[in-house]
Every structure is written in structure tokens, then in C-alpha cells.
User: Fold this.
Amino acid sequence: MRLRAPVPDDALAVLAVLVAREVADVGVPDDTLEDVLDEWRASDLDLAADARVVEAEDGEIVGYAVVRRPGTRAVVHPDHEGQGIGTRLLEWAERREPERGLERHRQWVAAGNARARTLLTAAGYAVARSHWRMGRSLDDVGAAAPAPPGVRLRTVDVGRDAMSMHALDARSFAGHPGYVAESLREFTEEHLSAHAFDASLSRIAEDGGDIVGFLLARRWEDEAVGFVDLLAVDPDHQGRGVGTALLASAFAAFASAGLRGAQLGVDSDNPRALRVYERAGMTVLFGYDGYERPMAPGSAADIVSPSRWRSYRDVDAADDPGSLGDQLDEIAAVPVVAAEKRRSLELLELSRGDSMLEVGCGTGPELERIAEIVGPSGRVVGLDRSLALIGRARGCGLARRGPIEFVHGDAIALPFGAGEFDACRADRTLQHVARPDAALAEMVRVTRTSGRVVVTESRWGLVAPDLDQAVTDAVLEQTATSAEQADWVGSRLPAMFEEAGLIDVQSVTSDHTVGERDDFFRFTHLGDAAEAAARGGALTPVEAKAWVQALSDLLTRGEAFAMVLFLHLVGVRPAA
Assistant:
């Protein structure tokens, strides 16, 4: 037996192993060749590093494993069980998982696979959750029920809706234990670019022009089945019948398209969704169990890997800390950023005489505005981990213009007493902190009872379809888009606020486009990123310059822009 990385020509052989395993375990094949190829093309998968096949002496592929962020999938052909193949794949996966930065060892296997259950249990794994495939016939599906009052249903427009759906997906599922955050690119690849995705069968729910729910559907022609790939409802609209209306509308569309059945998947730790699906006439067809085991202490998962460029996690270690300060000031001057800074400040509800802490104040441009609100009897403190940025802020003389102090310190160990401030804010700071949950806990600690805590995070995506995609990818790899934002902290904020004990939590979101040429380059710094890609050898200087010029031309013609999402979370510290 030989363990090796798969190559594209192995796809059919790998599919044969998967189908044989599925038929043995759940009675029906579930994967297709297109499913395998979609997974292998995913941007978050390095086929050479993240997958392995087991090759018998005659060259037949008899086992396969792939490590993804939601967990590892390892299968052995039923005709080759009992030969130690599963053990070899498990050992390989446990070495690869910490290298990928995963927090726990996790394997998904069919509920009926007794050998896999025995192997994993003996290795110290336990079932953490189950995933069920549910289905129903569409023979007796009726007309779609009316949407709840004020809610309008329509089909999905991928170009228009992608970013909002991505943000809503994060808000809807961030609190679920099995949720794994995805970048906008990963979300688009997995759900909107899948080979069977059908926008005409997918649905959007709007309330007052805002997207409050969506359903993404796939058309499985061979089985005559409509598959609900993803259904999400904004937490503020759950319990109003939005999910039920989306399902009913999709089922009616499936039936009108000549499909005979509907299927979807649901996790056992999502009982609300399970009840909705059962009321819609769906029953469990088969299931998979997710087995987990803690990662060994000191593994690679404990190591935080900083962004290769434009990281604010350690400004003072940068070759030119001043340039990072310049970037902060340039970004803050972009109109949409300035507007959202004002919005987060309004959420603090500051009054005359209040004390306020800004965590990650940078060069401190916001503190003067805050000082004007709290007045001479108030107190405004800006804290930053960077001595260079704090020194620059002090050098601007802001402290002489009001009750402003600048303090050097770490967000996860704030040098202040419990309840020392009336309010505390972190504006696009937690994405640059190695332990954002610890930083939030500290913010809560130093805020008085009934005081407000506001955290703002943002993310952006480039919309420029006429650019060379390979060159664009090389440029974006130099930015926080592919590093600090790949595991976007914003998607975890609702759960973090709950765990921190905050009450009266509100979530405020807004989408913007940045298309004016100068604002665009100030906000994204993609010109600098292209130069960095050339310096690092990912592009030639000619390629980098040509790409920037092409992007500039598109911006001038109004054919490119940045889609920007802002998320503000506000909560109140309760009485002890």
C-alpha cells in the first residue's frame, strides 16, 4: 500500500471509492464527479498537501482522505477493509490538521460505518454532533404559502446579493458549534459557483429592501431532486415564518421545474431548523456523525500566523511602522469609513462627563471628536499596542485639546480597573488580535454596570470581472483579504458577545461600494499590494504595473469597485 497525494487524473478512481463507501453505509450514492472536482478546485484546498489516496500494489486506489476546515473525510473501499488503511489515513490526517491551523481533530463518517466508529473511539474520539440528510416527495406539494407581512420573496441575483448573503450567513450561523467561518471568496466558490447551483430555484427574502433570509438551491438532474444547499434567516427575523416561506417557495419552484423530490442537510445542534423542516414534511433519509478529539497542546493550531503584508498585529516589528500609520489615516478618511465610524460612535450613546476607552486607537484621529461629546468633565483614553502609533498620536498634540490620554498596552490585558469606564469601543481592531475573545472579555471587565460596549468589524471584496484572475489572486494574497479576513472575526462576534455576558445585544450592518478611484486605492491599498507581489516574485514588475493600470481604467469607467460590509455589535454590561 502506498500513500500519496492525488492528481487530477485520479478523480474518477476517488469517486469510485466514495460511491462504494456511500452505497455500503447509507444505501445510495451521494457524490458525483463534479462534486469531487468542485472540492479539488476550491481556493482553500491545496490538493498536494490536504488530500491523500491509498494505492494498492496493483495501482488501484482503495482509500481517500481530505482535510478541510469543517473537518476531515476519510474513506476506505468496502472491499479493502481490515488492512490498516483507515489507521494510516487517520494518522496522516492528525498530522495535517494542526498544520492547517484547525482547533480540533474532527472526522465525519456515516452513522452506519461500524469499523470507522470503532477506529475513532479507540483513538479517543467522541461524537460531537450528527448531520442528517432529509427529504420529501414533491408529488403533493401545494402552492407556495404567502410570505410573512412585510416580507417579499424573489429569486437570487448573484452579482447583487452575494456579499449580503455571505454576511447574513455569518450572522445566522456564527453561534452554532459546528460553524466554520468562510471568506467571501470561499462562500462564493462553495455555494454560488458549484456546478449544480441554480439561481432560478433559489430565493431571497427582503423586508424593507434589506435581505433577511435566503435559500440557495441546486438542481440534481439525474435524481430529479432539488437540493437546498443553504437556508439562512437573520436572527432578528427568526420565528416569524421567513424560513418556512422560503422553503415553500422553493418546493413549489422545484415542482414547477419537473423535479420530483427535495432534499437538504441539517445538524443535530440546530433544533430550530429541524423543526421547520419536519413541519415542511421532510424526514431523515440517512446521517453522518462528527467525531472530535482535542488537539495536542503545543500543536501548530496554537500558533497564530500573521498576514504576510499590512498586518497591524505587530506594527512596531514592521520595516516601516510609519507607513502603517499612514494607511490607517488614509483609510479613516474614506467617506464610507468615516460614516461608519460616526455610526459606531452614536451606538455608544455617550453623554457629557462620561469616560470612554478606545481599544486599538492607532494614531487617535477619533478621540478629538469623542472629547467634544464628553466635554471637559469627561475622560477619553486611547490604548494601542504599538509604541510607534501611540508616539505619533501624542506628537499630534491631541491631548492638549481636551480630556484625552494615550496609553500603551495590550487589548488582552488592559491596564485599567474593573468598571473604570462608562463605555468601551474597538473599531476594526479585534481582527488583528490573536485572542479576540479575551480582548472582548477585558473590554467588558473595564466597563461599568449598564455601560455600553461597541465592536465594529468590516470586510471587503473586489468586484472587477475583466481583470486577469490569476494576477488578481496574486495581488490579493498580499492583503488582509486572504489573511486576517480569511477567518473573519465578525462572523463570531454574536457568539462572543453572548459568551462575554453582554445583554441587550444589537447587530447593525451596512453594505457600501467604493468605486471612486482615489478612495478605492486609499481604502484597499491594492497598488501597494501589487508592488509587494512583484517584490516577492509572485508577479513580474511589468505584470504588477499593467494590472494596476487596468484596474485604474476600470474604476475610471465605473466598471470596478470594492464591496464593503460593516458590522457593529453593541451590548450592555449587566449587573453582577
